């Protein structure tokens, strides 16, 4: 199958600017109080559901992967850019990183406890987002979680230069309701949302959604799906 042009240009762009990108954002989480709170809550949800392998898809140089590892998750990183993967392996030698595309994850069906896409869907054309979220649904085990972070807006920005390097990148902003709709359409209903206004250098509000792949219905011998659940009578 022929690779899409946007995948080739995204890979080449991040390969070109990997070192400067890493230097610019290496310590960014230290200033992001609310984002760290989202990661902490997400990690607790995954652990409380039994834990298991977690894929950080579009991991870049691995800063979020490492942070989630520090929160007790069995997490590894996947990125489209070989140069980003090389940097991640160098900076976090105790963690696993590999090349891959969120449109075709090399992961068996139903084997992940969670998927993280932290500002990594922003280069995906909107018409391909259903394919991405269907892929997340495929690799998640029942009860598994997906965390998606993104800038809020309706426009896209095209860049030909970044950090002094020639690139060809399109940054897309999304409305939370639209992403929630697409996740639900892929079988991943949204469990929680966060939204905050821009801070420091940010031009737009920021949002994240936590979605969950439903568990199979629990049935008793008579096929009653609510029997024995006290909450069902409240």
From TrEMBL:
Report the enzyme's class at the first EC level.
Answer: transferase
The record's annotation in Gene3D superfamilies points to: Vaccinia Virus protein VP39
One GO term under biological process is: methylation
Q: Where is this region: Disordered?
A: 195-234
Keyword set, alphabetical order: Methyltransferase, Transferase
Q: Which CDD domains match?
A: AdoMet_MTases (cd02440)
- Give the matching PANTHER family: TRANS-ACONITATE 2-METHYLTRANSFERASE, TRANS-ACONITATE 2-METHYLTRANSFERASE-RELATED
Q: Which protein is depicted?
A: Class I SAM-dependent methyltransferase
Species in which this protein is naturally found: Streptomyces asiaticus subsp. ignotus
